[in-house]
Amino acid sequence: MDPTFLKNIQERSGTLQENRQSASEANLFQGIACLEKFQQDGFGDLDLLKLACRQLIQAMKANSLDDRPCLALAYTFLLIEDYETAGEYLGLAREIDRNNPLNAALGETMAELKRLPDETEQKIPVLAEIPSTGEAALDYDALYDEVEASIVKQVHALMQQPPPKPSLNPTQVKQLEHLYQQLQNNHQAICRQIAVVDREIDVSELRVKLKPFEASLQRYEKALLASEQLKSLRNELDQELQKIEQASQTADAATDPGDIPVLEQTLESLLDHCDAYADQLDALHTSGVEISAIEPLYNNVLQNVEELRETLEDATERLKQL
After folding, report:
1. Can you give the residue ranges of every domain in the chain?
2. 10 Å Cβ neighbour count for 225?
3. Distances (CA, A) of 294 to 82, 119, 301
4. Is 205 exposed, middle or buried (0-12, 13-18, 19+ CB in 10 A)?
5. How big is the chain by its Cα radius of gyration, in Å?
6. DSSP string, 258-313
7. Residue 246 pLDDT > 80, yes or no?
8. Residue 132's pLDDT band (cuts 50, 70, 90)
9. What is the band of 65 on the pLDDT scale with cuts at 50, 70, 90?
10. pLDDT tier at 209 (50, 70, 90 boundaries)?
11. To which CATH superfamily is domain 5-115 assigned?
12. Listed range (14-23, 46-55, 74-83, 167-176) with the worst mean pLDDT
């Protein structure tokens, strides 16, 4: 990643809107400051990254004709290798200003990063294997100690992992799925071992020690479920944009005053959908899911619906005069 990219955005700001004081400008520069601090601190403070996203999204909302927040957000998601979301922001920036050289430069950077070899599998530590009991006569005391040690190893390995988080990034979701499957396999193996030990020895303490492992397993399961929900919502929002485009074209081409009620019903339906999407986002946010990656798409839908409202109003006035 080019470390001068954020500086270039700031320099472009000075050229385009020198001496301008606004909420959008303030949010933009606060977001960029958070990104710079995030990089200076070694890319480890995710709270700074979240704060940067929130500030930049606010800047984008405050001034939808400014491509700089979109470019900064694209840069942000490139930092965490979320190429799909970064591409969506680049697309939004391109719609605002196709001639901005920063857009092309960042697009080239993303293309280069995507060509780099995938090292995801190397980043996933292999958890300890659980040995099978075999058919020989068992030393239940030794097996108890063995299972207890295995549980401790599993819990320790999980403590070295960052908390699982939902994602729209296919690579990150693949990593979650890989580790979740590994955890499931190890959990099943431990449970089989506990069942064997339980024939001769009380295993209540083993089950208690296994609870942190099981809690982690549930967190991975929830993260994968939330990732699927985010993906589904993103697909629905993409489809909604297509519906809005079709409705706008229909309104522009309408020649019959009898089409007015149909157009109004279409708008009402789209507004209801937006309310439903807002409820879904609120529910995800309330449950602790980070929604910053999908908020721009939702905001884009809202903006397009508002533009459609204006188009329908113009079409209605035109048709009433026929």
Report:
1. 5-115, 120-226, 234-320
2. 12
3. 12, 26, 11
4. exposed
5. 26
6. GGHHHHHHHHHHHHHHHHHHHHHHHHHHHTT---TTTHHHHHHHHHHHHHHHHHHH
7. yes
8. low
9. confident
10. very high
11. Tetratricopeptide repeat domain (1.25.40.10)
12. 14-23
The two three-digit tokens of residue 227, written as one number: 């990732």
Count helices and strands (H / E) in the chain: 12, 0
**Residue 71 and residue 40 in contact, taking contact as beta carbons nearer than 8 Å:** no
Asked if residues 223 and 287 have their Cβ atoms less than 8 Å apart, the reply is no
Q: Model-level pTM? A: 0.59
pLDDT in tens, 4-26: 666 566 555 544 444 344 678 88
Give the CA-trace dihedral at 73, 56, 69, 173, to 10 degrees. Answer: 20
**Two tokens at 155?**
């819990």
pLDDT value of position 100: 86
Residue 46 is predicted with a pLDDT of: 73
The span from the CA of 189 to the CA of 109, in Å, is 44
